[in-house]
Amino acid sequence: MPKLDVSVKAETIAASRAAAAAAGMNLSNWTDKVLAEAAWRQRFSRSAERERRLGVTPEWLAQHKNGIEEQRAAG
Q: Rounded CA gap, 41 and 20, in Å?
């Protein structure tokens, strides 16, 4: 198991507790939620970077979607 020796400021813990309480959660659940969201953001970021390297742009996606819709409409 990795060593998780982390120093956290008291203000950060207090703000996290307040955010957790506002969401109806305890600090442990809030931490799990925040870490899960961070993992998804990292995964999305890697996916977006891979798409950029492949040349997938918003314009390409829109054109691709329009092509699919035209195929569906054609039957």
A: 20
Residue 21 tokens read as: 């309480």
d(CA 39, CA 36): 5
Q: Which two tokens stand for residue 50?
A: 């891979």
Cβ 22 vs Cβ 28: under 8 Å: no
**DSSP-H helix ranges across 1-75:** 10-22, 27-54, 58-74
Query: Which amino acid is located at 10 in the chain?
Result: A
Both tokens assigned to 28: 């442990």
Q: Mind listing the pLDDT tens digit for each residue in 25-57?
A: 999 999 999 999 999 999 999 999 999 999 999
**Portion of the chain with pLDDT greater than 70, in percent:** 92
Positive or negative CA dihedral for 19, 23, 27, 29? negative
